[in-house]
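FAQ: What does the model actually see?

It sees only this:
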Amino acid sequence: MKKINLSFILIATVLFFNQFTTAQTKYELNTGWYCNPIKKTTADGFEISKTSYSLKKWMPATVPGTVLTTLLNNKEVPDPFYGMNNEKIKDIYETGREYYTYWFSKDFTETAKKDEQVWLTFRGINYSVDIFINGAKVNKETYKGMYLRKTFNITKFLNANSKNRLAVLVHPVDEVGNPNGGQGGDGTIAKNVSSQYVAGWDWIQPIRDRNTGIWDKVFIEKTGAINVKNPHIITLVDGVRLPEGPQQPATLKVSAELENSAATDVSGTIQYTLDGTLVTQKAILKALTTTEVSFPDFIMKNPKLWWPNRYGKQDSYAIDIKFIADGKTLDSEPVHFGVREIQTTWNTHTQSRQIAVNGQKIFIKGGNWIMSDAMLRLSKERYDTEIRFHRDMNLNLLRIWGGSLTERPEFYEACDKYGLLVIQDFWVSGDCNGRWVDPMKKEDQWTRRNYPEDHQLFTESAEDMVKMIRNYPSLAIWCGGNEITPSADILHSLKNEILPKLDGTRWFIDYSNSDEMSFNFKGGNGDGPYGIQDIATFWEERTWPFNSEIGSVGTGDAVSLKRFLPKKNQVIPQEMKGTEKVEDEAWTYHKYIAYGNTLKPYGTPTDMDDFATKAQLVNYDQYRGLMEGFSAHMWDWYTGTIIWKTQNPWTALRGQMYDYYLDPNACLYGTRKGSEPLHAMYNPVKGDIMIVNNTFVPQHDVMLRITSYDMKGNSQLLTQVFTYTEPSSTRLILSLKDKIAALTAKEGLFLSVQLLNLKQEIISDNFYWLADEKGNYSGLQTIASAPLQTSAKKISYNTIALTVKNNEKNTISFFNRISLLDAKTSERVLPTFYSDNYISLVPGEEKSIELEYENLNNIEAEIEISGWNTPIQTLKIK
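And it is asked to produce this:
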């Protein structure tokens, strides 16, 4: 046997290890924080930041998090999302800023070896801060601005014994605003470069501390003399591509900033490896400067492309950008990206902007997004869940509303994963920034038009935001603001300087309902309406050709409502004789938007549970009708629509497909149905049957089958025909208006509209319930019971297969809600993902539904099924 030279192996291992130990080490400071209000703190930052100073009486702090989050977690305040609890918490407008000014402190262990640099990064603090480490002040210049990242070289501040203390004094926003009930309160919240919703809006009550705190992540990072930062990836995909098959090459442009913290120049090589190819660029970095270095263009052969949801896969790549000098890696920066190109053109027929990805036009089906949590309790897991819900709704875009924030990298990671394009607004709104006369505002329009007060801080924050999120393929469009542009000088900086220099690949809309996005031929605001609408309006009344905001209802079911409404407030929120509201403080406080007379055709609700059940029927119909109506006029009237809004970061009673607790309501499944990529649908006004093809390929040999069912379950085949549709198109097949009118006259009707392939597999299954000639659902009110046969089997650690069957002797089993429960508590398990829900089954029909929860091994799961005419049942899982 040949002897192994252990000495050689040891030396080689040490050399290999040394080459990479100076490379980047990065970790988060997210535990072990303590805080204390400035009013109760006598020491200054120099003293507090010494490890000898006692933090014994300080409160455990939540970082990342806000002051209010910390107070809630320490049970110092009640849950502001429940009932009227928010009224029990002191508002900063009444207390003054000092009340919510807090010291935050954390001990950490770290040292710097020779030639190492240690960096402290704050990804978001609200609003202005003083930073101390080990008895010394770190930031010589004022650090303020909610959206501005800051990195400090703290090497010289570290103690030799590795025991260190960080102390941060966080001040609230400079102008806290009067939360007087206006949109953004009295508007002065917009004087800051921060989110405007915190002073209250029509979907949320004021956030009492205005989100003061170290609200985003804090990192420690170790490098050599060179810090690689702000990489920039541009992918160019020419021509018109298809998701499948071999691809023509794409071009990759890569650059990065290299910060030299040494007192001498450093020469070396910046490099990355992709597809087995090493790409390098030599660089000479001047002392104490930051230099942007660009690589030679890289031609990617047969690239895997990134596509929006339901159009193709969301493939991605990862590279490590390294700087190497004298054989040592001084730093490396990982970056993920997708290969795709966004294009926009003006559609002269619709008079609106048309979006394309990789040369293929995309009909936009979007939702407006506020933020994940109004108290900024943000997490990768919650982001993933919420974006997955939007993927499951068959949507392909989210717009980040301008009164909120720059969404976090974890949000964009989820959008990359699930294929949601993103419009990112900057931080202004028509309400606060002066578009309209508003008696609730403190200052006039001329004054508000110049908000925020610090324009330089706004543009500096914008530059940093662009650098933070520009590499995500999901980011498709920049937007100057919500319903108004920023002031002229800021707009000029964004449009003509910042974005061309730092990005240059995405469309910039000057504001959300601008004529350059959607020509306003109707007058008015250019978006909306907001609230319940007759389904006929979606089909027959032409609105703005790329509507940036439309829709609003979204009350959850009774289980959802009882999570945040106290027992005394669990009432019917409105009279059924008209639209007059019952005065209930909690419903009003949580921003209920009336359903008007839309529930009355189902029978006057008897209690809150009955109200909420009937609301789900309206929810489903409303959002299916919205998406179908816009799709019916694809490329004729419209190039897209964006629902206002699809989620709530607070326990509001409007504009949501799932509640704050991540429990979906029928809006989600109505939107999902109406947004199917290949979809057969019924126009309730004209009686037309249409097919929508939102794919890039023609659909040949598709069978359209239309069947009616009466209230006893008797069926009648109305038509069955083979048909064909062009790619990305809408096709009218036939009209059944007279026939359906005759069948519905007495007590209404069920209508099944299906598409089948040549294997006779159902590829679109759309089930309508139609009112009688008086507009009432009289048949539904007397329909017989239809119990289901059910079975459920666990097929993996996180998935259950549920089978439901309706006996052929039954009538229709209508509108069944499926819920996954914890058998020990009988509470719904959240979040659970359902392959379908609120389902109906005709006589003899069997359906299979999959339920997915993160880890079924951690609970004793059971399933509950309840429907309009289906007795509630609970079943065990095999």
